[in-house]
Amino acid sequence: MIEVKDLTFSYGKISRGKNKQALHGLNFHVADGEIFGFLGPNGSGKSTTQKILTGILKGYGGMVSLFGKELKEVHTQEFSRKIGVLFEFPYLYANLSALDNLHYFASFYPKEQLRDAEEVLDELEFKRDFLRKPVSTYSKGMRQRVSMARALISSPKLLFLDEPTSGLDPSGAVLFRRIIEKERRKGTTVFVTTHNMLDADLLCDRVAFIANGNIVALDTPENLKEQNSSRSVVVDYLYQGRREERRLEAQSLKAGIPFPYDELISIHSQEPTLEDIFIRYAGRRLS
Amino acid sequence: MKRISSLLKKDCRMMASGKFFLVALGSLLLYTLFIHFGYLNFMGDNANIYPVYLYDPEGTYTQASTLVHSVASRKELDAVLAGDAGSGVGIYVKDGKPNVVLYAGTEKVDRHRADYALSLLHSGREYKPETVGDHTPEMKQRREITCELLFIEIVAVGFLGIASVLFKEKQMGVIWLHAIMPFPKSLFVFSKVFLFLLTDLVFAALMTLFNVGRSEAGGILPAVLIQTGILSLIMALTGFCCTMLLKDFKQFSLAYLVIALFTATPVFLSANTAIKMDWIYCHPFYYVYMGLKNAFFGTPVTMPGYYICVVCVIILLFGITTTAFRKEMGKEG
User: Fold this and answer.
1) Of these four, B7, B69, B82, B257, which has the most CB atoms within 10 Å of its CB?
2) Are residues A216 and A239 in the same domain?
3) Burial group, residue B9, by CB count within 10 angstroms (0-12, 13-18, 19+)
4) Contact indicator for B173, B26 with CB cutoff of 8 Å
5) What is the pLDDT of residues A124-169, one digit of tens each?
6) 3-state percent breakdown (helix, strand, coil) of chain B, nearest 5
7) Domain extent at residue A55
8) Interface list for chain A against chain B, based on CB atoms closer than 8 Å
9) Residue A179 domain-assigned?
């Protein structure tokens, strides 16, 4: 679905000495129907990459191919019809209602690929009382739902989601993840840009870590965790009336607990989180 | 078609929610009340139409109107015109032919003054000043003030109006969403400029009808609308372009002050007052303003060069604006 080779991009003109290279030769591919996570801190180049992939930024170096065609050669309108984009902020006309916003943006797509606006909003558990009220009266979570509906209304084959669960309460975040998963089951390819490690861990088939315009790691979340795991466990126990904790190699538990104890309280594996792994690769935190 | 009607509908709602139509209607009422109950009363019947000075050494025009002031020499003619550069018209008769002398403006772009002066020479007998019409002092004042207020309205309110709508879209971030929408981006520019053009044309038509009068307006309205359209397109496109290039409305207001100060003011002063600026002929806005003024006095610009230049400028501005819009869309985030 997406094929990126030696992707470079610079802001400013080299001749004016204001050149700032944002991307230094990225290489990755996203398969059809895959949920691909693109993780990185602010200024790492992830938004720039998404803008190039969505056709907003031109003038990049290297090769970007989408739907099997080089992006530079694709007719922008033809390409835009196949993609849905959710921006980080819920950009909507504040003076228009949710339905008016959706009908307006839907009017740019061919009728045959459109979904019913109310149906999409229902799926996103949007409060029906607000359907015809101006967006200015909505909470952040409701705006995010309308934005997501806008991205989904044209039944895109490729979905770009920038911080999809931002501004949502935990149940809203669960709902969004369920909907993204549902889209994937329909065959949609999803490119998720996020800071949120939980989203990446629960949703993505593969994740790429980007730092300073370079991809520093790319694999499935499971593989990344396994590769970076210390393979140790922490045993929490009671012995002679005192609570104690001891770190052991997982292998050493094969023959049972190798030390005296009165009562076992818990055994925790020392598996790193994606955030730990990111820090290990990039040398800094995500946010 | 569906896309353009969608854009137009949305822009219409944006303009309505920004109270643009209300402001335009308020301006129309205010200007009309001012012209009917303020300006005309204040100016009264004492106001002269353009002072006309005649140097006729051969005594050809013996039946000239009493409104014509005779001078004794060419030197005297030049002296009085230099002192009355804003509105005075000189006629120098040589070999029986009247030659119009204008110190501010040229005969080609300021024909209503020339025609008015020539009409006085014949005292309405042989020369039929059809293009001048029934220019009583009141009618002259009505046309002049209507033209001036219309110019101010389009240069100021139209220009700021498009910016206020666009800055709102920029503030809401929705302008960037259009980057990923499957439609030609020039349609976005076209829709806005078209709506502002339409509003300005309606405004100009009503302003002319209310203040010049129905019977007089009929003859001049097509030319007035053409000139209004030209001015409206130039201002709306410039406003659009500035909005894309500038960060916020504060910066835009400063840019507007600069434009008003250096672009509109000299033209206005030069064309309507006795202030003389030799360089004003190099100012493109001078020709646009005089085009509008001439239209109000029933002498529309017929020079093809003027229209060719105007069309080229509008096409160029449209291209620059669309490019600036595309660039702005890449700035998301």
Assistant:
1) B7
2) no
3) middle
4) no
5) 999 899 999 999 999 999 999 999 999 999 999 999 999 898 888 8
6) 70, 5, 25
7) 1-79+196-229+273-287
8) 47, 51, 54-58, 76-78, 80-81, 83, 85, 87-89, 91-96, 104-105, 107-109, 150
9) no
